[in-house]
Amino acid sequence: MHKMIQPKVTLVGAGPGDPDLLTLKGLKALAEANVVLYDALANEEIMKYAPQNSIKVFVGKRIGCHEYSQAQINQLIVDNALTYGHVVRLKGGDPFIFGRGSEEIEYAESFGIATFVVPGISSAIAVPAYQGISLTKRGTSESFWVITGTTSNRNLSSDFVLAAKSSATVVILMGMSKLSQIVSLFQKESKGETPVAIIQNGTTPNEKIGVGTIDTIQEVVAENNLSSPAIIVIGEVVKESNQLKGFYEEFVAAEIKL
């Protein structure tokens, strides 16, 4: 007698890159997976927690290189759940922060499949933290914005106009291709001296960082050959990081000499 297949989908946030930042709940879900569908931002080291006999499919997307369309991924989730049982959809960071996780859950639920969500540590918070950047700090920043640099129609989010006027820390995901536009918006608000950090491949051994100001950050990017995937952090809290404040002390000293 064949065991009845119980279709189930668990959406798991893999964290920002360091495999040790996967949650215990995420690890337990992976250990019970029949199928794992994982994306480009999920560290492949995490796959060792899935059963050896589980089916593992890379469905990653990068700028200009899509292994599968979102519609195909949605269908893969459903087809595998109905055929094999428990599907873990492993996504970088937190699946509900610019990860289209809600779309995948809604699609699975439309087929009557049980769904569960395991939150992940978002790169928007963890990557700055690894550089000692506290997104909020008493007396410096009362709030922070997390904005996508590129919307679904490939344009810059209209929220940047408001963010540039704010005193909040601004954290930008997927914004490297729009950096010049972002810089222009902040310069229009006379914020050329506002500190900026750009962190590429944050929390991984390949991490690279460039620090500067709104006026200088594009030169910093060119000098350090920074590219996606990267987090952009704009705000006074950047220069208050113990790891980065030395740069800004040198920067101010150089300005005084000029």
From TrEMBL:
It is an enzyme of class 2 (transferase). One of its GO terms (molecular function) is uroporphyrin-III C-methyltransferase activity. NCBIfam families: cobA_cysG_Cterm, PRK06136.1. InterPro entries: 4pyrrol_Mease (IPR000878), CobA/CysG_C (IPR006366), Siro_Cobalamin_biosynth (IPR050161), Uropor_MeTrfase_CS (IPR003043). GO terms for biological process: methylation. PROSITE patterns: SUMT_1. It comes from the Bacteria. Pathway: Porphyrin-containing compound metabolism; siroheme biosynthesis; precorrin-2 from uroporphyrinogen III: step 1/1. Its EC number is 2.1.1.107. The gene is cobA. This is uroporphyrinogen-III C-methyltransferase. Residues 8-217 form the Tetrapyrrole methylase domain. Belongs to the precorrin methyltransferase family. Keywords: Methyltransferase, Porphyrin biosynthesis, Transferase.
